[in-house]
Amino acid sequence: DDDSSAGVADNQREDPRGWWFSDTEKSSFNAMDETKSCAGLEESLQAVAKAFSELGPFNGILGFSQGAALVALICALKQRRDPRFQFDFAILVAGFKSRAAEHAEFYQQPITVPTLHVYGDTDRVIPGEMSQELASHFVNPVLLTHAGGHYIPVCSAQKKVYFSFMDSFCT
C-alpha cells in the first residue's frame, strides 16, 4: 500500500497537469525551450473554460509558474473579448513569457487586464528576469518581489500587497 494516498478515494485523485508541452515526444516542458510549436494548449484552455462555466463566476484568477504563463495567455484572450474568460484581474506568480513561436501572437498587443506579478529574487526555476519580461507585456502591472525562490510567498508583508491589489476590485 502507498501511504501517500491515505484518506483519498481513488476517484478523488487528480493527475498532475502540464498546461502544454515544449517537447512533445517526451511530453515534457521546460520554460527555457524555444520551440516552433507545442502540444496541449487548446486542451488546457478548454479545461479552464469548463471551470469558468461550471464553477464561476470568478473575480480574478491566479496562476503559478507554467500556470501563470497560461494565465497571461488567457488575459490576452480576455482582452480579445473571448467570451469564455470573464474576470477582473489576474495574479501571476513566477510567470514567464511562453517561448513557443505559435504563442507569439498573444504578446503582440499590450495586455490591459490588471495584474499582480510575484516573483522570487533567488528563483532558479523561473529567474526573476523572465517574470519581469512577462510583466512588460502588461499595461501598469503591479510587481511584488520576494527574497525567496520558486514558491508563493505568504508572509505578512506580501499578504498586504495581495489584499491591497484585490481590494481595488471590490465594490
Automatic annotation (TrEMBL):
The organism of origin for this protein: Pyxicephalus adspersus (African bullfrog)
Q: Which residues cross the membrane?
A: 58-77
Q: Where is the Serine hydrolase domain?
A: 10-158
| Family, as annotated | Belongs to the LovG family.
Write out the entry's keywords from A to Z.
Answer: Hydrolase, Membrane, Serine esterase, Transmembrane, Transmembrane helix
Name listed for the protein in its UniProt record? Esterase OVCA2
Summarizing the function annotation, the protein's role is: Exhibits ester hydrolase activity with a strong preference for long-chain alkyl ester substrates and high selectivity against a variety of short, branched, and substituted esters. Is able to hydrolyze ester bonds within a wide range of p-nitrophenyl derivatives (C2-C14) in vitro, with a strong preference toward substrates of >8 carbons.
User: Which Pfam families does this one have?
Assistant: FSH1
Q: Would I find RNA-binding among this entry's keywords?
A: no
The biological processes this protein is annotated with in GO are: response to retinoic acid
Give the region (Disordered) as residue ranges: 1-22
For this protein, what is the EC number? 3.1.1.1
- Key word Transmembrane helix present in the record? yes
Which reactions does this protein catalyse? a carboxylic ester + H2O = an alcohol + a carboxylate + H(+)
Q: Name one GO molecular function term.
A: carboxylesterase activity
GO terms for cellular component = cytoplasm; nucleus
